[in-house]
Amino acid sequence: MRLRRFDLLFYKGDSWIGRIIRGVTDSPYSHVAIVLDELHLAETDWRYPFQIRHLEYRPEEYDVFRLKETLSNLQKHRMQQFINEHLRTPYDLRQSLSNGLFILSQGRIHALDAANKMNCCETAYKMFQNAWIDLLPERPKNFLPPGLLASSEKLFKVA
C-alpha cells in the first residue's frame, strides 16, 4: 500500500494506555497520525507535543484511511499551513481523559478541551477543518476518540 500525503494512519496500540483507550472507546484504534510521506508522520501523543516523526509503526499495527474526495491545491496548502503553525503544540491530556469519562458516564460528563493544546484526534480533525472539510459534522462537542474519527463517511479505509 502506498501512503499519500494527508492520509490518516490509525494505530492499534497495544501498550497499557493503548489498551485502555481501545477498551474504553470500544474501538480497534488508540491513536491517529497524519501521513506526510512514506517515511514521515505529523503526530502528538501524551509523551510529546505535535511534531514530525519517522514512521516507526509496523504495517500490521495500523490501518490507513483516505479522504474520498480529491483535495484542491488550496486545501492541501491550508492543511500544510495548519501543520506548520501547530508544530510543538502540547498534547491535550485533559481532552483525552474526558473522552473516556464521557463514554463511561454515557454522556453525562462532558468532554473538556484545554486551550492551546490538542490531542491526536483533534489535530487531524482540525487540519481537515482548516481546509473546509468537516469529517464529523454531527459529533458531540469536544468528544473525538480515534474510532469515531475513523468512522467518518468522508473517509475510506485503504486496502
What is the succession of H and E elements? EHEEEEHHHHE
Number of strands: 6
**Assembly classification:** single chain
Tell me the number of helical segments per DSSP (H or I, 4 or more residues long).
5
Strand order of the largest sheet: 4-3-2-1-5-6
Distance between the first and last residues' Cα: 7 Å
Secondary structure category: alpha+beta
Radius of gyration: 15 Å
Helix content: 25-40%
Describe the fold and architecture:
The protein has 159 residues and is an alpha+beta fold. 33% of the residues lie in helices and 21% in strands. It has 5 helices and 6 strands. The protein has a 6-stranded antiparallel beta sheet, with helices on one face. A hairpin with a 2-residue loop joins strand 3 and strand 4. Helix 2 packs antiparallel against helix 4. The termini are close together. The mean pLDDT is 91.
Supply database-style keywords.
single chain, 159 residues, alpha+beta, six-stranded antiparallel sheet
Write the layout of secondary structure elements.
Elements lengths: L7 E4 L4 H10 L5 E7 L2 E6 L2 E7 L7 E6 L5 H14 L6 H12 L15 H11 L15 H5 L4 E3 L2
Antiparallel strand pairs: 1-2, 1-5, 2-3, 3-4, 5-6
Helix pairs in contact: 2-4
Short description:
With 159 residues, the protein is of the alpha+beta class. Helix content is 33%, strand content 21%.
